[in-house]
Design goal:
alpha+beta, 5 strands
């Protein structure tokens, strides 16, 4: 079963690897016995379905979760059951890939209008006048 990212992109299960480990934090005796946390590994280097520009954005989004071998590691231990942690890890991976697939809008360089420049300068002059008026000059008398 493939992991569905959107209508056009599916990630093959061969590129995903799940490992169940013990969760950290509070939980009483159960936390020491049951491996409920999930470590989801996604082989980005071996994935040809993601285009190079989206892959670069995904690498930037993954940050420290990306290993030198090109594997994204997501650790999920928010819930008390393996199933919910597994779903959480997969949902977080899907969300990260979907963010990377969105092409950022190109910025169109604009210049400030003449009126906005004049308003800015007028505001600066007004502020300067206010500060000058606050400087109390000592009375000569």
């Amino acid at each position: 079963m493939a992991l569905e990212i959107n209508e056009t992109l599916n990630i093959d299960d061969d590129l995903l690897q799940e490992r169940f480990v013990r969760a950290s934090g509070p939980g009483g005796q159960n936390v020491n016995k049951v491996s409920t946390a999930v470590e989801l590994r996604f082989d980005l280097a071996g994935c040809d379905a993601i285009l190079p520009r989206a892959r670069a954005r995904l690498e930037r989004l993954a940050g420290s979760r990306l290993t030198d071998e090109g594997v994204i590691i997501i650790r999920a231990e928010r819930f008390r059951t393996q199933e919910r942690n597994r779903a959480d890890a997969r949902d977080r991976l899907i969300e990260m890939i979907q963010k990377a697939l969105v092409e950022p809008k190109r910025r169109i360089a604009t210049r400030p209008s003449r009126a906005s420049k004049e308003r800015r300068l007028k505001a600066k002059t007004h502020r300067s006048d206010v500060k000058r008026m606050r400087q109390g000059k000592p009375d000569p008398g």
